[in-house]
Specification:
Uridine Diphospho-n-acetylenolpyruvylglucosamine Reductase, domain 2, Uridine Diphospho-n-acetylenolpyruvylglucosamine Reductase, domain 3, Alpha-Beta Plaits, 3 domains, 7-stranded antiparallel beta sheet, 5-stranded antiparallel beta sheet, 18 strands, FAD binding
């Protein structure tokens, strides 16, 4: 029997997609990468995932794991050879259990992030991972890329939120590491090896995740700023004033928000007059365990002092949940506005917070000197040093013109990142997009160790080939 026939026999024809039915899975969210697949398979259990991998191993077929297909680096898209099997985790979507005494939730990899948040809330708990794509991204993809999001400042990224994993290895074996333990010092940490590996070592099929108490109150505010330097100083003050209660601190250039308002006119900035002309905006959120009044008092005291001292020009504090959601909606709409405006050269970088203002000034100037007229689209999670530092086309430039400059733009931005002791990938992963850049910014020793791990865990090189590491 052919591999396709064996897959159909294993899963049933309805869960083995070919031809036109498979094509949407072979195109990434940004429409930058289009591949071809032998088939898309949709296993409904961990045992079926293991059986699929054993079949693919026997036939020598590459396997490309795919969750919600919301990635930005082409990490879930096959090449154009038509030999790969895309393994969709869409049917692995069950919440296996919630333990409120241990503050854990165990979910399958295909669970949509928002569904996990809602399941936790129904149990009186918080699962704090929060992303713009949370309505469609999946837990498996979040873990595979070590996703960050808007609350890393308080709760950490996906790696910090995972206690245990269930993984199907490249050989089709099942490792059940779903331990809800916060201390387990019994050897190598396999969990952390698979998290962030982008499906190149095995397939995460389930995870045991940390939960937290629901906050009693939340306060949200949007502030106007004159510079990134002021934003960094405001962050320092907010950390001092709020401590661990500070859960979010987002930085947005005015151009980002103006694009949102232009494309989504139902949204608005809660300011008038000169405040609308501010070059930078910060979105802060405080989560309080005491009371609404306590949270509001702390919030107004710290922000009021910042305005009096000239760090912030104006502040709009949400009076209710609807207003808070509207402020966050502005921030979360920036990637959608970017997509509407056309392809850009994206950078997901992390920089020591103390160096971010220098990085922005110097890199903006270097880009203008080399590529006059290109536009910077800068926003991100200032609280953990993660900027989405994107470059959009200048007036008169086509998308093709800009994308032809991508290697040269990468050179300018990534060299600046390195000069400021940063990383060229903060939370989006490497995928195809940055695979060939990685050797320039990782030491030979690091790359050699990574390749040894890959060879040990995936000796046939069938797990998501062409991603993260060069062949």
């Amino acid at each position: 029997m052919t591999l396709l026939q064996e897959l159909q026999s294993l899963l049933g024809p309805a869960h083995v997609l070919v031809g036109e039915d498979a094509e949407p899975y072979a195109l990434d969210w940004r429409r930058r990468y289009r591949g071809r697949a032998l088939a898309v398979v949709r296993p409904g259990s961990t045992d079926e995932v293991a059986a699929v991998l054993r079949l693919c191993r026997r036939h020598g077929a590459p396997v490309v794991p795919q969750g919600g297909n919301t990635g930005l680096c082409g990490g879930a898209t096959p090449d154009d050879s038509g030999t790969a099997v895309i393994l969709s985790t869409a049917r692995l979507n069950r919440v296996r259990g919630i333990d409120t005494d241990n503050d854990t939730i165990t979910v399958e990899a295909g669970c949509v992030l928002q569904a996990v948040q809602e399941a936790a809330e129904q149990a009186g708990r918080l699962f704090p991972l929060s992303l713009a794509a949370e309505g469609s991204c999946t837990i498996g993809g979040n873990l595979a890329t070590n996703a960050g999001g808007t609350q890393v400042l308080r709760y950490g990224n996906a790696r910090e939120l995972a206690l245990g994993l269930e993984v199907v290895t490249a050989e089709g074996e099942i490792w059940n590491g779903l331990r809800g333990l916060r201390k387990d010092n019994t050897g190598y940490d396999l969990r952390d090896l698979y998290i962030g590996s982008e499906g190149t070592l095995g397939i995460i099929t389930a995870a045991t995740l940390k939960l937290y108490p629901l906050p009693v109150a939340r306060c949200t505010a949007l502030l106007t700023l004159a510079s990134v330097d002021d934003a960094v100083e405001l962050l320092s003050r907010a950390r001092t004033g709020f401590g661990a209660s500070l859960t979010g601190f987002e930085l947005m250039a005015a151009d980002c928000l103006q694009a949102v308002l232009r494309l989504f006119p139902q949204q608005r900035l809660p300011f008038e007059g000169e405040s609308l002309k501010a070059p930078w905006f910060a979105l802060l959120e405080l989560s309080d365990s005491e009371s609404e009044a306590h949270a509001r008092e702390r919030f107004e005291a710290v922000l009021g002092a910042a305005i009096e001292d000239g760090l912030a020009g104006d502040a709009a504090i949400a009076e209710n949940l609807a207003q808070s959601q509207a402020l966050w909606h502005l921030r979360e709409s920036i990637p959608l506005a970017e997509a509407e405006l056309g392809k850009s050269v994206k950078h997901d970088v992390s920089i020591p917070i103390s160096s971010i203002a220098h990085f922005v000034r110097e890199t903006n100037a270097a880009l203008q000197e080399r590529f006059p007229g290109v536009r910077n689209v800068i926003f991100g999670h200032l609280g953990d040093g993660n900027l989405h530092y994107n470059v959009a086309r200048s007036a008169g430039q086509t998308e093709e013109d800009l994308l032809a400059l991508q290697p040269a733009i990468y050179d300018v931005v990534h060299q600046s990142v390195q000069a400021h002791a940063g990383s060229i990938s903060a939370e989006h992963g490497v995928g195809q997009l940055k695979r060939d850049e990685l050797p320039r910014y990782k030491s030979a020793v690091e790359l050699a160790l990574m390749k040894r791990i890959k060879a040990a865990l995936d000796p046939q090189g069938l797990m998501n080939p062409g991603k993260v590491l060069q062949a």
